[in-house]
Amino acid sequence: MDNNIIDAAFEEGQIIKSSLYKAQGETSQKTIERFSYKFLEGLRRKDNGDLTSNLIRLYCNLEQRSIPEFFKELLKDIGSMNQIGYAFLLGLNSYKESFAKSSVQAGSEDTQKESESNENDEEE
User: Fold this and answer.
1) CA-CA 20 to 30 A from 2: which of 24, 63, 75, 121?
2) CA distance 82 to 61
């Protein structure tokens, strides 16, 4: 199994998470949790049909997004199915450090602006 495919599956999971959040807002977390549970169960049972139908349902929630070609590997053999499936789930359920840093920075900038505003109010 090519590591590039595993990396692509992880990155696809992160992209799907972001796309779902943009489309559904806070309810996207429930969608991700439901999908993850069903997908993990399919991986555990080694059920290609179940995995494929869950992927199709997930991608139906997204406009303008097609299922990547590397998911065909899920249908070929069990080893690939596990590696690609788990990599995708890890990406889908991951928390990007860069996103966390930007959120913290945005929050600290807001706090700084608020404190400057309060200082200006006190001076008047």
Assistant:
1) 63
2) 24
